[in-house]
Amino acid sequence: MGHPLASSGSDHVPELITLDSHGFRLPDPFPNLTKTEWSAILPSCPALVAPPPPSSCPNSTFKEWFDTHTNKARALITSNTPVTRPCPRSKPWWSPLLSQLRMAFHLASQTFTSSRDPDNQSALQSARRSYL
Protein backbone atom coordinates (compact mmCIF):
# COMPACT_ATOMS: atom_id res chain seq x y z
CA MET A 1 0.00 0.00 0.00
CA GLY A 2 1.29 3.47 -0.86
CA HIS A 3 1.81 6.40 1.45
CA PRO A 4 -1.33 8.27 2.42
CA LEU A 5 -1.70 11.61 0.67
CA ALA A 6 -3.65 14.69 1.64
CA SER A 7 -7.36 14.51 0.99
CA SER A 8 -8.46 15.89 -2.37
CA GLY A 9 -11.82 16.98 -0.95
CA SER A 10 -13.77 14.10 -2.47
CA ASP A 11 -14.45 10.44 -1.79
CA HIS A 12 -11.44 9.46 -3.87
CA VAL A 13 -8.17 8.94 -2.11
CA PRO A 14 -5.08 9.17 -4.34
CA GLU A 15 -2.75 6.22 -4.10
CA LEU A 16 0.96 6.36 -4.94
CA ILE A 17 2.29 3.57 -7.10
CA THR A 18 5.81 2.69 -8.15
CA LEU A 19 6.49 1.12 -11.52
CA ASP A 20 9.40 -1.22 -12.04
CA SER A 21 11.52 0.06 -14.91
CA HIS A 22 14.24 -2.59 -14.82
CA GLY A 23 12.84 -4.26 -17.92
CA PHE A 24 12.91 -1.01 -19.90
CA ARG A 25 15.95 -0.69 -22.12
CA LEU A 26 16.73 1.73 -24.91
CA PRO A 27 17.32 0.12 -28.30
CA ASP A 28 20.95 -0.54 -29.17
CA PRO A 29 22.61 1.99 -31.46
CA PHE A 30 23.30 0.84 -35.00
CA PRO A 31 25.22 2.29 -37.95
CA ASN A 32 23.24 4.61 -40.20
CA LEU A 33 24.61 3.32 -43.52
CA THR A 34 22.75 5.96 -45.52
CA LYS A 35 25.14 8.55 -44.04
CA THR A 36 28.39 6.61 -44.59
CA GLU A 37 31.30 8.74 -45.81
CA TRP A 38 32.13 6.60 -48.86
CA SER A 39 34.58 9.18 -50.17
CA ALA A 40 36.75 8.49 -47.11
CA ILE A 41 36.40 4.70 -47.45
CA LEU A 42 37.00 4.15 -51.18
CA PRO A 43 40.73 5.08 -51.22
CA SER A 44 41.37 2.45 -48.52
CA CYS A 45 39.49 -0.35 -50.31
CA PRO A 46 42.46 -1.73 -52.30
CA ALA A 47 44.27 -2.38 -49.00
CA LEU A 48 41.37 -4.60 -47.91
CA VAL A 49 42.00 -7.24 -50.58
CA ALA A 50 42.66 -10.38 -48.60
CA PRO A 51 45.29 -12.94 -49.53
CA PRO A 52 43.97 -16.36 -50.53
CA PRO A 53 42.83 -18.47 -47.59
CA PRO A 54 45.20 -21.10 -46.27
CA SER A 55 44.83 -24.32 -48.22
CA SER A 56 43.77 -27.49 -46.42
CA CYS A 57 43.74 -25.92 -42.98
CA PRO A 58 41.64 -26.76 -39.94
CA ASN A 59 38.37 -24.90 -39.46
CA SER A 60 39.80 -22.80 -36.63
CA THR A 61 42.59 -21.43 -38.87
CA PHE A 62 40.16 -20.61 -41.66
CA LYS A 63 37.79 -18.95 -39.17
CA GLU A 64 40.66 -16.85 -37.81
CA TRP A 65 41.70 -15.81 -41.36
CA PHE A 66 38.11 -14.94 -42.29
CA ASP A 67 37.40 -13.01 -39.07
CA THR A 68 40.63 -10.99 -39.39
CA HIS A 69 39.83 -9.74 -42.88
CA THR A 70 36.12 -9.24 -42.21
CA ASN A 71 36.89 -7.19 -39.09
CA LYS A 72 39.25 -4.93 -41.10
CA ALA A 73 36.45 -4.09 -43.55
CA ARG A 74 33.90 -3.70 -40.74
CA ALA A 75 36.22 -1.37 -38.79
CA LEU A 76 36.83 0.80 -41.86
CA ILE A 77 33.12 1.16 -42.58
CA THR A 78 32.00 1.73 -38.97
CA SER A 79 34.72 4.33 -38.38
CA ASN A 80 33.26 6.38 -41.24
CA THR A 81 29.59 5.80 -40.46
CA PRO A 82 27.61 7.76 -37.87
CA VAL A 83 25.63 5.80 -35.31
CA THR A 84 21.93 6.28 -34.72
CA ARG A 85 19.80 5.23 -31.78
CA PRO A 86 16.10 4.81 -32.52
CA CYS A 87 13.60 6.42 -30.22
CA PRO A 88 11.98 3.96 -27.77
CA ARG A 89 8.63 4.84 -29.36
CA SER A 90 9.82 4.39 -32.94
CA LYS A 91 8.00 1.94 -35.16
CA PRO A 92 10.39 -0.24 -37.17
CA TRP A 93 7.56 -1.26 -39.49
CA TRP A 94 6.74 2.34 -40.53
CA SER A 95 7.80 3.27 -44.05
CA PRO A 96 7.84 6.33 -46.33
CA LEU A 97 4.97 4.76 -48.31
CA LEU A 98 2.82 4.67 -45.16
CA SER A 99 3.64 8.34 -44.56
CA GLN A 100 2.47 9.23 -48.08
CA LEU A 101 -0.72 7.17 -47.72
CA ARG A 102 -1.43 8.79 -44.34
CA MET A 103 -0.95 12.29 -45.78
CA ALA A 104 -3.26 11.46 -48.72
CA PHE A 105 -5.90 10.12 -46.33
CA HIS A 106 -5.80 13.22 -44.13
CA LEU A 107 -5.88 15.56 -47.13
CA ALA A 108 -8.93 13.72 -48.52
CA SER A 109 -10.54 13.85 -45.07
CA GLN A 110 -10.03 17.62 -44.79
CA THR A 111 -11.27 18.17 -48.35
CA PHE A 112 -14.46 16.17 -47.72
CA THR A 113 -15.07 17.85 -44.34
CA SER A 114 -14.91 21.30 -45.89
CA SER A 115 -16.98 20.52 -49.03
CA ARG A 116 -19.29 17.57 -48.20
CA ASP A 117 -19.19 16.73 -51.90
CA PRO A 118 -20.12 13.07 -52.74
CA ASP A 119 -17.15 12.86 -55.14
CA ASN A 120 -14.83 13.89 -52.31
CA GLN A 121 -16.46 11.27 -50.08
CA SER A 122 -15.62 8.48 -52.55
CA ALA A 123 -12.04 9.83 -52.77
CA LEU A 124 -11.90 9.80 -48.96
CA GLN A 125 -13.10 6.19 -48.79
CA SER A 126 -10.55 5.14 -51.40
CA ALA A 127 -7.72 6.92 -49.56
CA ARG A 128 -8.85 5.39 -46.27
CA ARG A 129 -8.84 1.86 -47.72
CA SER A 130 -5.37 2.39 -49.18
CA TYR A 131 -3.98 3.74 -45.92
CA LEU A 132 -5.55 1.19 -43.59
Secondary structure topology:
Blueprint: E1 30-31, H1 38-41, H2 59-79, E2 83-84, H3 96-115, H4 118-131
Antiparallel strand pairs: 1-2
Helix pairs in contact: 3-4
How would you concisely characterize the structure shown here?
The protein is mainly alpha-helical. 45% of the residues lie in helices and 3% in strands.
Written account of the structure:
The protein is mainly alpha-helical and 132 residues long. Among the domains are: 30-84, no CATH class; 96-131. It is 45% helix and 3% strand. It is built from four helices and two strands. α3 (96-115) packs antiparallel against α4 (118-131). The longest helix has 21 residues, at 59-79. The mean pLDDT is 83.
Could you tell me the radius of gyration in angstroms? 29 Å
Mean pLDDT: 83
* SSE string: EHHEHH
Largest sheet: 2 strands, antiparallel
Strand content range? under 5%
Distance between the termini: 44 Å
Number of strands: 2
**Annotation field: number of helices:** 4
> Strands across the major sheet, in which order?
1-2
Helix/strand class: mainly alpha
Brief descriptors of the model:
132 residues, mainly alpha, 2 strands, flat
